[in-house]
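Checklist before submission:
- one chain only
- standard amino acids only
- sequence pasted in full

Submission:
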Amino acid sequence: MNLFGQAFAWIFGGDKSGFDEVPVALVVHMAFTFGSVLIAALVAVPAGWAIGHTGRWRNVAVGVTGAARAVPSFGLFILLVIIMGVIHQTAAAVVTFVLLALPSILAGAYSGFEAIDRRVVDAARGLGMTEWQILWRVEVPLGMPLLVAGLRSAVLQVVATVTIAAYVGLGGLGQYIIAGIPLQRIDMVLGGAILVAALALLLDILFAVLQRAVVPRGARTPRTTTSRRERLPLEGATP
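Returned file contents:
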């Protein structure tokens, strides 16, 4: 039996004594992921919308997001565990994941507003809309696809990084990878990696569908149909 066969055999019935069952580990992994992204969104989305609407502090936001992306998440996690203490490991993990999610969400929030044609906003002002109405009835709906793209990127980054939470015994799917290496349990290590990859792929597909669904109907690019006469020369036929 090859390595992948052993990994799948472990996932669907292998020895997991001493570790959480896969459903329990999956719930913990998802809780860390979505809890952290939710906290980051509560901070980054209003800030990004304010920057995109007013045009102020954009350079600061770009600098902050760029610097935050360069911070190594594992090093930050260990540093926070040391600073906050062993009894606050969960809080240290959440802070790490929130800081990891912030740049993508913030960038998606203000980029969504910046991508809107200014003539649309000017037309809304010409119709007598207040700034609050322009924000909620024009900018937020039109900027939503890029915001969802930012959320999508943040979720994928966090769901992969949550594996390091198991380094200090916080569970999740990463426990199989981190604990399996010193035990030389290749089936468990590979099985854990497959579970994380499958979860990331599933979430990516769901957010891709959501990103397409939030595009306002009037802003969707219509599908162009090509007539038979237009196709014939391309197909090598004679008109």
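Reviewer check: The two ends are 59 Å apart (CA to CA).
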